[in-house]
Amino acid sequence: MKNNTVQYKNKKKISEPVIRRLPRYRRYLGELMKDGVERISSGKLSEMMGYTASQIRQDLNNFGAFGQQGYGYKVDFLYEQIGKIMGLDKEYSMVIVGFGRLGQAIAGYIDQYEKQFRITGIFDLPDKVEDIEFKDAYVADMDSIKDFCSRHKVDMALLTVPRSEAQHACDTVCEAGIKGIWNFTSVDLKIPEDVHCENVHMSDSLHELSYHLKDK
Amino acid sequence: MKNNTVQYKNKKKISEPVIRRLPRYRRYLGELMKDGVERISSGKLSEMMGYTASQIRQDLNNFGAFGQQGYGYKVDFLYEQIGKIMGLDKEYSMVIVGFGRLGQAIAGYIDQYEKQFRITGIFDLPDKVEDIEFKDAYVADMDSIKDFCSRHKVDMALLTVPRSEAQHACDTVCEAGIKGIWNFTSVDLKIPEDVHCENVHMSDSLHELSYHLKDK
């Protein structure tokens, strides 16, 4: 199977919609592993996931020929490969900016389910930091972000500040050299070109739900 | 402008990608209103939002001819119309199943920013309910959901239970007759055909972020 890896290393640019589907593939494969399933065809995956079998084959072919004709995909191998593709075989250092209820909830979630993301720093308003403690994370007021990042490698910042503070917090972490932003502020942030931002717009999904319910 | 509304009432089926973009249009229009902008062209919206102007015109044409040649869109009118299209001119009754840190954080968010969604009931494990209080919401253990729904109209359920409880909680609210699920459990739920589910898969977006950062 060595060829696959090589093929992936000489990688072409993967389109965003494919990237967005990969975590879902991985989740389904994880469920299959838990159920003791060792291999699966694109047809069966298609039934489970609601994508067409040809879409699935096409998606996964982006990264090399993982499947074998008449055999299907080896579940644990594919799970692991997608993890590698997503960069989940590495460890990331994350700081949290804004440690209200949402920040705390997500920190707890990461600590439980996403152990390769290590929360190394937590930043909030000066009058809040005294009461904050989370494992071995460094806790300080928001003015200290730059200083902290100059002393530690930080890969990403989780933003859970109020909307009115969102762009300022974003500017601060970008100036500190952080290249990844996980944004829960419901604001579309302006970011430099070399920074990647993933948004979790909770209201958007709530409004999609109300769209589907409004006539029920 | 009456024609628009009529046109929308005789509505064709709107595609999911369009529906998914609508909340974002509304957010941008809301920002423009705050800045005192009264009208905007599809070209300017395109610059702000990163969609092409023709995409924007096409999206909004689904709901009637909101724009006027050479004038553009009237910001407040379009904001309001999209809100109506999303069903945000109505009030919804929501129950929360699982009131840990995440449930509490989202409840606070809704109470602050999404006032047309009223939290009417909160359900958790028997040993947790004693300590729960949230405004005038009814609080009880999870076995009481059906009974509560038989006495009150409930439009949607927010699920923030642990992964292992997710499908069971989902089955319970569906059996209770709830037609909308806002799912934060990171599990892809099996639901009846007449129920709509919106997922907020936090891990998926975190993994997309790690994909983009892995080689930085």
What is the secondary structure topology, with strand pairs?
Two copies of one chain form a homodimer.
Chain A: H1 2-9, H2 16-34, E1 39-40, H3 42-49, H4 53-61, E2 73-74, H5 75-85, E3 92-97, H6 101-113, E4 117-124, H7 126-129, E5 138-141, H8 145-151, E6 156-159, H9 166-175, E7 180-183, E8 196-199, H10 202-213
Parallel strand pairs in A: 3-4, 3-6, 4-5, 6-7, 7-8
Antiparallel strand pairs in A: 1-2
Architecture overview:
The structure is a homodimer of 216-residue chains. Chain A is an alpha/beta fold and 216 residues long. Chain A is 47% helix and 16% strand. Chain A contains ten helices and eight strands. In chain A, strand 6, helix 9 and strand 7 (180-183) form a beta-alpha-beta unit. The termini of chain A are far apart. Chains A and B meet through helix 2, helix 6, strand 7, strand 8 and helix 10 of A and helix 2, helix 6, strand 7, strand 8 and helix 10 of B.
State the end-to-end distance of chain A.
51 Å
Give the helix level of chain A as a range of percent: 40-55%
How much of the sequence lies in strands of chain A comes to 15-25%
Largest binding interface between chains:
A-B, 54 and 55 residues
Order of helices and strands of chain A: HHEHHEHEHEHEHEHEEH
Number of helices of chain A: 10
Describe the strand arrangement of the main beta sheet of chain A, using strand numbers.
5-4-3-6-7-8
**Average of the residue pLDDT scores of chain A:** 90
Largest sheet of chain A: 6 strands, parallel
Q: How would you describe the oligomerization state of the chains in this entry?
A: homodimer
What would you call the structural class of chain A? Answer: alpha/beta
Overall geometry of chain A comes to: globular
According to DSSP, the number of beta strands of chain A is 8
Radius of gyration of chain A: 20 Å
